[in-house]
Amino acid sequence: MIKILIVDDHAMVRSGMRLLLGGKDDIEVVGEASDGDEGIRAAESLRPDVILMDLSMPHGKDGLTAAAELKERMPETAVLILTMHDDDEYLFRAINAGAAGYVLKSAPHEELLTAIRSVAKGDAYLYPTATKRLMNEYVERMKRGESSDVFDTLSEREKEVLALAAQGYANKEIAEQLVISVKTVETHKSNVMEKLGLKTRPELIKYAMKKGLLQFD
């Protein structure tokens, strides 16, 4: 059962989310909050698996500030940004804040459910309509002056695992694609994170962006 905390300043949005998620066998809404400060307190009390976090809340902490603080206090909890802002800059900032995913409020319900289930199992989720342009822009902005020395210490297999992990594939799926064991995938991923000095999945995604490792149709 995936325990969900909804943080949004609009009561109608919270009610709609609770109604939508309440009918799913694998999801339980354990609480609601109307701003970032209240959300942090509720999260520490309820210990949810996933926090649905609005970006723009006029009172208390905004969603990005709350997300960053929650990742410091509760790194095991995934923060999924749910917002109306279809804006690359907000997405960059959300990743920098440690969010595990970013979904538009205008997205189909099934996309939200997919995002929740993805981040709950430790994967990242970026809304698909903006992903390609986002990656292209980010690579162009970040590649100047980027050192490749540390990256060059990775083996070819480690680079493959890095690329697949950044695209959101689970360890089992990576193992199937590369025809290796799940334990071997876990070892490679651990080595990659250690060599590159990365601690979280959003950091891994950002690194893969900078290296141009993410590929899209």
TrEMBL record:
Entry keyword Heme: no
Domain HTH luxR-type stretches: 147-212
Keywords: DNA-binding, Phosphoprotein, Transcription, Transcription regulation
Entry keyword Ion transport: no
Domain Response regulatory: start-end pairs: 3-120
Domain of life: Bacteria
Cited SMART domains: HTH_LUXR, REC
Residues modified to 4-aspartylphosphate: D54
Name this protein carries in UniProt: Response regulator
Organism encoding this protein: Paenibacillus xanthanilyticus
